[in-house]
Design a protein that fits this description.
Helix content: 40-55%
Number of strands: 37
Bound molecules: adenosine-5'-triphosphate, magnesium ion
Number of helices: 26
Length: 883
């Protein structure tokens, strides 16, 4: 079976068991503050298990793009060194949300593996949770009883809490799990050592392929467990490992999932994979063919490489790959970007998003690669300097903080430093490096330190209702809250059962406003400074100590947003939509959203486009948007439209954004602007008033950014510009033609500069004549030591060089006081410098002591500056004594 068939067979099998097949969520986790990237199949369903939402079906199956390179699951360091851990991999999964349980999960898993994929039964082992006395959870008898007739007792392994008890987090749903492992060793090895003893022992050919999790408990904050009202199934099977098993290989990289990229690498490097002669070349090919997947799919899903957070993780993965190619495959020109095409083709029917952004992703990677290769080169130079100076000192270890500097400032990886050092007979202080790294981590942890209490529940509620599309004010109850210590003081996070406050999302800032309530016949009020969202939970942020009182009384509060601010936000959001449509008309349909931010002041928009947007194009976009504003198009808002229907209608969706099954459509004239959007918008475009760009620039390779303002802000901006203009007019005494007046001024200025230059030159010529008259003639050289009056330091050089052309065997030492700053220069005719070993650089350094300064240069000409002009005479006196 090909990998395509294997994936399809999984989905078909569960479809036949009445599962709804859903698409993979984007690789980049946008809505979950505890995750940067989706790292398991269940991540996109978390809210269903937490009771914050209802699944579209009680049975779901899919293949999910996962990335395990940070946080709880980080396999990065193993990737390439072993043959079955990847950074990005596909997790095949089937779920039951309060529907079937262990019996179906177990029998179906077995049926699929042995009947559809025909994996040999005598090579499969399963594990069952042995129980945990401390938690008071018994041995999973139910799973045991289900497995026993299927696999036989001797193929079941008991597992402890670490391997066989799954928990969503410190609190929340959890339960025992059952893993399925496969032994892929040759028969002769199996005969010698039983596979059972190798399960969970890091053997590369005895690996876990599938994990079946049975959620039946909930962990409370005091760490006690209570049974869940309904039980769920969550399974995850590593697709690449499954392919290895079905295709009867001993490494994931030998399957058709990776062979395409490996073959390209063979061609590029001229090395053969698996030849065994250069183990690091094999590792490098595995690293690269793995990493390109992570990098390409992350960029596709909207995560560009950058210097912070998730962007930095992607940049590091990219650099790891490029460096392995550089060091072990001799690939010293950009090559990584070439692999995008291979992947885009391979996945064109599975994850279509890569094919449709192929050119963009390729360009981004190429630019990153180029810049990293430059970094590598400057790092190599820096390393040469370090090693050079150690040689002089007779030390053979590179200090930890130097290794750290190389990695931190030059992005120069530690193992590469160690490798190069070793080649040159040096070693690196690993421990010292670790210390420096730990110190830095500590610093950044302290910077980010935030301490939150548990959520404190005040009353039951079925989730949060957002009413802000229709109301500015609601009567609400506080359902829970927590306090969070931040660097700027303590914050309250308040969750209401219903709210008009929009929580920051989709680029739109959160609302601000007030909560009001009555206590002891008195009106109280607290200011809300922001509204945010974690998973599907909206919370209002406040620093108002007043709130303690509201939390005590737990009565009704009136939640009211700052309407004026919201109106300005609405204008900016609707203008962003109009602008995107106008951009597509003017620049082309390739324009895709790569990031967006808008508040009550400005709108900022990042988009894929490969060249600067010209002034003329900007003007045309601006004109088009303003035209649509003047048309005063009435907003057409449609809620709860099934996603497929929306897409079929031609609505614009953003890559990497996860949409629910039902979406909201924002339409300003269906033939113009038609978008999926959860934000708030003006009732008709006329409200926007006016739209004006304020900047255009590049963010990174292939991504441009524009900023614009609307309404009052635009007016304010125009006023400011007008004021600046008026001030300039005043300064120029109100000329009739301002531009002409400024041009005249500039012309005059350059004419004056020319005159000054020529006067200065005349002065130097006069000076030269008087100096020549004072020339001291000696038998082997001609000497001038003189304090001169020149306009700038360059004149000393000019003077020396011009005299050289007129006087043989010249030695000239000048001192000058240039606007209070003393300057010295020493000139020694080249032939004299060579014959006598006299060195102008050394001499000027010595003389500079008199003016409290320093300098240097070449053997025949050198200069110095200082801070004490009163020492000039002494310096010149000293110079006279030298010759
Ligand atoms: P392992 O112990 O092998 O790292 P795990 O216990 O971390 O696996 P789970 O979190 O249970 O794995 O994930 C479910 C399945 O996903 C595993 O059975 C395995 O097939 C697959 N899997 C997990 N991590 C990776 C990875 N880094 N690369 C490829 N497949 C993986
Ligand atoms: Mg793992």
């Amino acid at each position: 079976m090909t990998s395509h068939q294997i994936r399809q067979a999984f989905l078909d099998f569960f479809r036949s068991k009445e599962h709804l097949i859903v698409p993979s969520a984007p690789l980049v986790a946008k809505n979950d503050p505890t995750l940067m990237f989706n790292n398991s199949g269940m991540a996109q369903f978390k809210d269903y298990f937490l009771g914050n939402g209802t699944p579209p079906s009680r049975r779901i199956a899919d293949t999910q793009k996962c990335l395990r390179v940070s946080g709880k699951h980080n396999d990065l360091e193993d990737v390439g060194f072993d043959t079955y851990h990847h950074t990005m991999f596909e997790m095949l999964g089937n779920w039951s949300f309060g529907d079937y349980f262990k019996k179906e999960a177990i029998t179906w898993a077995w049926e699929l593996l042995t009947e559809v994929y025909k994996l040999p039964k005598d090579r499969l082992y399963v594990s069952v949770f042995e129980g945990d006395a401390k938690d008071g959870v018994p041995f999973d008898q139910e799973a045991w009883d289900l497995w026993k007739p299927i696999v036989g007792e001797d193929r079941i392994i008991l597992g402890n809490k670490k391997d066989n008890f799954w928990e969503m987090g410190d609190t929340g749903p959890c339960g025992p799990c059952s893993e399925i492992h496969i032994d892929l060793r040759p028969a002769s090895d199996v005969a010698e050592i039983s596979g059972k003893s190798l399960v969970n022992n890091d053997h590369p050919q005895v690996v876990e392929i599938w994990n079946l999790v049975f959620m039946q408990f909930e962990r409370k904050a005091d760490s006690s467990l209570i049974p869940l009202p309904s039980t769920h199934v969550d399974t995850g099977m590593g697709f690449e490992r499954l392919c290895m098993a079905v295709q009867n290989k001993t490494s994931n990289y030998d399957t058709d999932v990776f062979q395409n990229t490996i073959q390209v690498l063979e061609t590029l490097s001229g090395k053969k994979y698996g030849a065994g002669e250069e183990p690091f070349a094999d590792i490098a090919m595995r690293v690269i063919s793995d990493h390109i997947r992570a990098v390409a799919f992350a960029i596709t899903d909207g995560q560009l490489p950058s210097n912070v957070k998730a962007g930095y993780v992607i940049r590091r993965i990219l650099r790891r790959a490029v460096r392995y190619g550089y060091s072990y495959l001799g690939l010293q020109e950009p090559f990584f970007y070439k692999l995008v095409a291979v992947l885009a083709d391979q996945f064109k029917d599975v994850f279509t998003e890569l094919k449709s952004q192929e050119e963009f992703v390729t360009r981004v990677i190429l630019e990153e690669e180029k810049s990293f290769l430059r970094t590598l080169e400057s790092g190599l130079k820096r390393l040469d300097v370090i090693i050079g100076s150690l040689k002089v000192k007779g030390i053979n270890t590179i200090a930890g903080d130097e290794v750290f500097e190389l990695s931190d400032t030059f992005g120069f990886p530690v193992d590469l430093t160690a490798l190069i050092a070793r080649e040159k007979g040096f070693q690196v202080d690993e421990l010292g490096f670790q210390d420096a790294l730990a110190a830095q981590k500590k610093r950044s942890r302290q910077d980010a330190a935030k301490e939150a209490t548990d959520w404190i529940e005040l009353r039951e509620a079925d989730g949060v209702e957002f009413l802000g599309y229709d109301f500015e004010e609601t009567h609400s109850h506080i359902i829970k809250y927590r306090k969070v210590k931040t660097k700027t003081g303590e914050e309250y996070h308040i969750v209401l059962d219903r709210t008009p406050f929009y929580a920051e999302m989709g680029g739109q800032v959160g609302d601000t406003g007030t909560l009001r309530w009555a206590a002891n016949g008195e009106q109280k009020v607290a200011t809300i400074i922001d509204t945010k969202k974690e998973n599907d939970l909206f919370f209002h942020i406040s620093k108002d100590k007043n709130l303690d009182d509201a939390l005590q009384s737990a009565g009704i509060v009136v939640a009211k947003i700052d309407e004026e601010r919201r109106d300005r936000i609405k204008s900016n959001h609707s203008a962003t939509h109009l602008m995107l449509s106008a951009m597509r008309e003017v620049l082309g349909t390739h324009i895709g959203q790569k990031g967006s931010f808008l508040n009550d002041e400005v709108l900022r928009f990042d988009f894929s486009h490969f060249s600067k947007v010209t002034d003329d194009e900007l003007k045309r976009i601006e004109d088009r948007v303003n035209e649509k504003i003047r048309e005063n198009i009435v907003l057409e808002e449609r809620r709860n439209v099934p996603i497929q229907q929306a897409l079929d209608l031609g609505a614009t969706a953003t890559f990497g954004e996860k949409y629910g099954d039902f979406v909201r459509l924002i339409i300003f004239d269906p033939s113009f602007s038609f978008e999926l959007c959860g934000g708030t918008h003006v009732p008709s475009t006329g409200k926007i008033g006016v739209f004006k760009f304020i900047s255009e620039g590049s963010v990174s390779a292939g991504v441009r950014r524009v900023e614009a303002v609307t309404g009052e802000k635009a007016l304010e901006l125009m006023r400011q510009q007008e004021e600046t203009l008026n001030t300039i007019k005043d300064l120029l005494k109100n000329p009739t033609d301002l531009v002409k007046a400024v041009e005249n001024l500039l012309d005059e200025r350059s004419a004056l500069q020319k005159r000054i230059a020529s006067l200065e030159n005349e002065k130097i010529q006069a000076l030269k004549t008087s100096l020549l008259a004072n020339l001291e003639k000696h038998s082997t050289f001609n000497l001038i030591v003189e304090k001169v009056d020149v306009p700038n330091a360059d004149s000393l050089k000019q003077l020396s060089y011009e005299l050289r052309d007129q006087v043989e065997n010249l030695i000239a030492v000048f001192g000058a006081d240039i606007a209070g700053k003393p300057q010295l220069s020493v000139f020694i005719a080249e032939n004299i410098a060579q014959e006598t070993g006299l060195n102008a650089g050394k001499i000027v350094k010595d003389l500079a002591k008199e003016i409290r300064g320093g300098g240097g240069g070449q053997a025949f000409f050198a200069t110095a500056g200082g801070s004490d002009a009163s020492g000039l005479d002494a310096a010149l006196e000293k110079a006279k004594g030298l010759f």
